[in-house]
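Why do we care about 3D structure at all? Because function follows from shape, and shape follows, mostly, from sequence. That is the central idea of this module. The next example makes it concrete: a single protein chain, its amino acid sequence, and then its structure expressed as tokens.
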Amino acid sequence: MPQVRRALKDIMAGAIFVAIGVAFATGSLAYDVGSPLRMGPGYVPLVLGGILVTLGLLVIVKGFIAGTGEPIGEVDWRAVILITAALLFFGVTINGLGVVGALLGSTLLAAFARSATSIREAVIIAVGLTALSVAIFIVALQLRLPLVGSWIPL
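And the structure:
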């Protein structure tokens, strides 16, 4: 039984992969899946969910067979809270602040998840990721999201 304890990180990581993969695959069934030649909007999430479940199962099996690994350390609650807050901030403010405001705020929150990040580094990360995201999603992919939301008077 000590092998299971030593491989607990692999087993837990694999279980998380399986759970996320099942969620994606299940969610994709609400859309038309189609076929490999005529893919519907649910096809790619279904395939990616299946791949993620397969990888998760492989990681779990490796955890049971190899039995190597280190014990799980302490959880960095600061990082957990700030990353979760960043995701929630983006979801809640994307319509009101627009893409630029929501991305700046969420990347600033996420940047401070690492305690050694300075304010200067966080601002550089936030501005860089916001500019890159706007270039990719708004300019290149032409997503119809407002750059500036209704909460910011111009």
